């Protein structure tokens, strides 16, 4: 469903959040901003810093 909307997804081994995130970050060559999803005061202004 996400791919149909033009959103790229990455398949992982499913060994848990930390292991999967580590695997992804080791295998991509672009700048990546990772943040917990439960930060209510995070907005686009902060992400531009």
Automatic annotation (TrEMBL):
Per its UniProt entry, which superkingdom is the organism in?
Answer: Archaea
Protein name, UniProt field: Uncharacterized protein
